[in-house]
Every structure is written in C-alpha cells, then in structure tokens.
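Continuing the series of single-chain predictions for the mutant panel. This is the parent chain; the variants come on the following pages.
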Amino acid sequence: MIVNFFILSPRGDTVIAKTYRSKSSLSAHERSHTEAFFRKVKFWDGVAPGTPGMDTTLGLTKDATTTNSSSSSSNGAMNGGKKNAVGMLDAPPVFVMPDGYSYMHVKRNGLIFGCATEKNVSPVVVIELLSKIAKVFKDYCGTLSEESIRKNFILLYELLDELLDYGYPQVTQTENLKAFVYNEPIVVSKVADTGKMINPKTANASAVHKPVISSVDSEGRKTSLSANQKNEIFVDILERLNVVFSNNGHVLNSTIDGCIQMKSYLAGNPQLRLALNEDLMIGKNPTPSAYSTTTYVDDINFNDCVNLSEWEHGRTLSFHPPDGEFIVLNYRMTGEFKAPFRLFPSIEEVEPNKLELALHIRAEIPDNHFGANVVIEVPLPQITTAASCSVVSTPTAAGVSAEYMSKERKIVWCLKKFPGLSEQTMRAKITLGMACTSTVRREFGPINMNFEIPMYNVSSLQVRYLKIAENMPGYTPYRWVRYVTQSSSYVCRL
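Parent structure:
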C-alpha cells in the first residue's frame, strides 16, 4: 500500500522515518527525497513535478518563461487551491514527484505526516490512515509536538510496527494497541500562555494532554494512571461555519459542520448516557427561519461504539467510551441560521486613482459572549501603491489594530476581543497606480473573516445531561463540557 512513512518538522527536519519497501535508489537517497518533498510543499507553485509534459527537474513547463502571469496564477489556483498567509499557494494533499511516487500528507500542529505510494491506491484511504496515525500518536504521547515525538521516538516506532505491516494498516485503534505496547511515554509539559488569552477558562485543561497509559515525567518519575487520578471526562461541541455574504450584508450560502468530541479518563470504563435536545429533528426544516425554536440538522452520523436504542424517542445515546480522543457524532446543518457576525462593506471613488473603503461589522451574538482572535483580511488590487487605515471601535473591544500589508496587497484588521451586540468599523484610503476601471474593481476582495467564539454554538444543539448509566456508589466523575464556534470559510463579496 505505502512505500514509506515520515514525519517532518516545520523546518523540514525528518523526525520519524520508516521504509517498508522501495527501489534501491530511493532507499539510498531517502533524505534527499523527503527534502525535495518538503520544498515542494513549502513553496508550491501549482505544478505537480511528475505531471506528464512537465520538466520534472524544475516542475515547470518547457514554455513556462513565455507564459504570462495571469494565466500562471489561474492555473496555480486550479492545481493548488487557496493561498496561505504569505501569499503562496497551499500544496494539495496528493501529488506526484519526479521519483515516480505519489506523495500524500496531512498537517497536524505544524508537523507534516506524509508517505509515498508506488501503486495506484485510494488517496482517501491513505489520508484517513495518516490522520489515524496522528491521532494514535497524540493519545499515547499526550501532546502532538516535535518535542514530544523526539522524546518518545522509541514508543512511536513500536506503535508503527503494530499500526503498519509491510506498508498495510493492521491495528489502528488506541485501546487495541495497549496489549502490544511495552514502552512508557515521556510526558512533555504543555504550558498554556494565559497572558495572551482573553478567557483562560476556555483553554484545554491540562488533564486533556495526559497519555492513555502510565508514563514517565521529564524528571524520570513514573506516574500511574490509577494513582491520585480524578475520574474526568471532557466533552467538546465544536461547530465550524461556512458563510458567504453579498456586498449588502445578505447571506447567500451558509452551512454548519459540527461534531461532539470526547476524551475519557474514567476508571473502569463505565457506560455513559448522553442526552441532546428533546426537540432535535433530523432533516430539512420545512419552514426555514433564523429564529426557529426547533433545532434541525440535515444529517447526522454516529461512532460505531454508540448504542441508538433510545435515540428515536428520547434523543439519548449510550456507549462505553474508547480510550483516547474520539468523535461521538458528526452533524451538518444547511439553510438559514443566525450568523454571529454580519459584514457591510462599501467602496467610494474619491478621485480616478483614489478610493475609500469602509467595512462595518455587527456582532449579533448575545452581549455575554464575544469573538476571540478575530482577523479580517481585505485583498486589494495588484496596482495598489499605498493604503492608510483607521478604526472606530467600542471601548469594550480589546487588541484592535489595522494595517496595510504592502507585500501581500491586503489590509489586515485584528481584534483580540469582539464583544457581542457591538459594532466595529474600519476605514481605509487606498491609492492606485492608475485610474480605477471595472477590471481593477473586480480585484477587490473577497473579504475573509476568521474568529472563535467560546461557550457558544449557532445550531442550538445542547447537551441536556451526561451521566453514568450504572448506579455506582461513591463514584463521582468530573464532567467538563465546552462549546466552541469557529469560522471555516466566512466570506463577504465586494
């Protein structure tokens, strides 16, 4: 199935590497192949080097020097996807390299989990396998970082021997691997920088980063899971929003992708009962409204461990939580819902080569909630020569700044805290290198907004209760439930 597996650091260093079968030329120059792969991912130009008709040495077509910039940028957008923070195209998860292998990768916490395949295998299966390996490594190390992987490389190689045999997946469940693992993880302490956070209570508790087996701390002291351990279970209701606004603030398209995620540290692995809204309905809302009292989700799917015998009449799930972090259910909601932020942009032409941009954002979440780490990006035309920004914000907003990034030709507006039921405005004076035409106007936007709203969800899906099914005297578990709403693609057209 796969020829080799490797983990690369954000600098491109090989942290973990294992070859299952390969040509002698690849094994002799394995490091050069991973270096070439990292350079391609880091500086993706929209061209796969192994594509027929390409110069596989440089990854360019023979007549690339005569191709104009506009056509190359459009081809790059089709082959590589959206641009990243530094204006480069993001590499696709699957592409062919000059050595003839198909390389596939996923990114987790800045690390690149990658592999190469010689045969024509299903990319979806390989991507799922890489994601599963990253999850297992996190479960056994506690945290997924370069430091934790370097300190636990013996344990991780032992896990790899059980996860993959001759490049084929074998055992990929965290709890099933316990019987085959004999090394103990070395815990890397994860220190949260609460000084930069708006609300430290919304951060992950330190217990979430404990390994699923007994471990050794950084000073060599052994820590057992059974010694002085609280019976805890952590529940996250995560929602990611995809919204497209028109230039007058109307919603053109909107979807919610949500999941309920858990991590259990309960002794004895008791059966749990999780109850959701009693009025939860599955299917399309017959009378769509942003202010509907009934909660509708388009579709929902459950983990294999969930017992659905009480789902239809009580919206209650029962299950024995597996080891490590796992997703209880995924759900999707489309149609009309109350967007947490509304954007109202306007552009006015002052002179033939000077324009004024005004962006007004209104928070429609309750005043006891806030948007954290809000970043709004406004792309400007390539002929922009200068831009100056000014912000009109409420006193309750924190960490407000706006600046023009001349290299990327965009305005970046940041708010560390965007209070609910408040309004913020940013104005910019833009100078162009030539007179503004209809073609130049089309280069404005779209506006992209990134944010996170702690302890709030848009779909109104709620956890009514989480309790242990069996009656166990003296067994008092700690239950931690957290709601988080994040932007996945929050875009406004100009």
